[in-house]
Request: fold
Amino acid sequence: MTQKRSTWQKVAVREELGERTGFVSAQQLHAEMVAAGQKLGLTTVYRALTDMVESGEADALTGSDGETRYRICGLEHHHHLICNVCGKTVEFELPGFEAATKALALSHGFQEVSHSIELFGTCSDCPRG
Amino acid sequence: MTQKRSTWQKVAVREELGERTGFVSAQQLHAEMVAAGQKLGLTTVYRALTDMVESGEADALTGSDGETRYRICGLEHHHHLICNVCGKTVEFELPGFEAATKALALSHGFQEVSHSIELFGTCSDCPRG
DNA sequence: TTTGGTTCGATAATGATTTTCAGTAAGGAG
DNA sequence: CTCCTTACTGAAAATCATTATCGAACCAAA
Reply:
């Protein structure tokens, strides 16, 4: 059966991502790892990130510019508060909201509801706007 | 001064989009218009849709597959409940939620908060899951 | 109909992500 | 420890949606 192998590349990507406090694109991550002296391919970074998303270790977020950004995340269900200047991200939950949205969807005849909730703003470290 | 002109192409795009009950991609829309006998360029469809989004006539939504989809929308602030099978979309508001998210963001030191909220599910016309 | 702009649209360019495919290396078996 | 099997790697080519180019078409008006 198909099983995953552990390689230094995957470990490196996981570590690099873990050092971030916000979402990063695969390209950015790759560029910085190469700049830092680690020699790995862009393809590999994409693969490592995809694996992490599948295993639930990370969250992916596709922005309106079409670029997908990644971030290490907790396992529990949560949402994000993202600084659109520096990318800093805070996880949060919304008590009661889950139920409200589900009820609303059901009232319109929708089943198997899931949702996407993201808040954007400028964090306290990034002045002005 | 630079003013917009009304052309049959723009009108055609607006009408075609108006006939839909859900989000459609520029490519889909273009393909179907061409198939229906209307001869216009893909570039033009993109431009028309972009204009409509800027003027507030339509909403754009970039999916996780990187494709942007469009839909005619009401002017007031609202969110979407989208069928991920047929694409049917329902607009809705979330009383009280706006304030709650803003307060939450502010409590984390974030300013100029905006949000993205979309609900996905399977509508009553699309059985199974 | 000439003028001065705006819009069209075929095509080339862009840019992120994926696929290809031959060479590399985990890691279990012996 | 050594040998295999097979997942993994990565450079380069292929995709794909979207954007930029730029000459032709078009419109209103002088």
Q: What stands out?
A: The CA atoms of residues 57 and 72 of chain B lie 6 Å apart. The mean pLDDT of chain B is 93. Chain B has four helices and six strands. Residues 2-5, 7, 9-10, 40-44, 47, 66 of chain B lie near DNA strand C (CB under 10 Å from a C1').
